[in-house]
Amino acid sequence: MRLLKIHVNPTKVDAGRTAAKKAMDILCKILRSKAKVRFIAATGASQFDFLEFLCKSRGIDWARTEMFHLDEYIGLPANHPASFRKYLSERLVEKVHPGQVHFIEGDAPDPELECQRLRELISKEQIDIAFVGIGENGHIAFNDPPADFETEEPYLIVNLDDKCRQQQLGEGWFESLEEVPRSAISLSVRQLMKSNYIICTCPEKRKAEAVRDCLSKDVPISPMHPASILKQHKETYVFLDKESASLLRR
Predict the structure, then answer these.
(1) pLDDT, tens digit, 9 for 90 and up, residues 13-68
(2) What is the gyration radius of the CA atoms in the chain, in angstroms?
(3) Which domains does the chain have, with CATH numbers?
């Protein structure tokens, strides 16, 4: 049985706006009952409007939040134009100043030790809410197909497939495919699914096939379509625009 709450919006901007409104409502609700909210933030073109509207939302006590980072390229310095640390610093952290911020150090000397460091941090308490998108190849975080649905490790070193790397080039983060890193540190699928709430924002026509393959009710959950796992989560809210939802059967 599909548990997803799917919202189809007229435009990409509307999808970002309504996703941000839902995220704000959930964050404020949690902060009324807890001293702190722990959340996971994603990057990429799908999150532009969402993060812009979320940062403009009123009533969120950001000082009482703790942010974790969804994924990061291995070997890329934080000042590289394609660095997700740079992305989140400019589009979220420097605007709202979360109380605590845990970036993935993609250029750490030992990526395995970096995964261990992050595991110890994220495992201290429950993650309240995660903000994610869906890749053109159906990936969730940087878990490309076939994704590992079994590992309990919170963070993994993953290899990026050609379609994923081509998406990064197509979005303008790199000047050539050769520049796109071939590996990354990513939040694992199981760790993502442990979040109490998930907000998934996935607009644009180029995502329509991935949305169909991952979110259609009659398509089975499969590591070959990593984001299909969201259909097992009890509190996932998906925000599409008409273009990304164009291949879904109503």
Answers:
(1) 999 999 999 999 999 999 999 999 999 999 999 999 999 999 999 999 999 999 99
(2) 17
(3) 5-241 (3.40.50.1360)
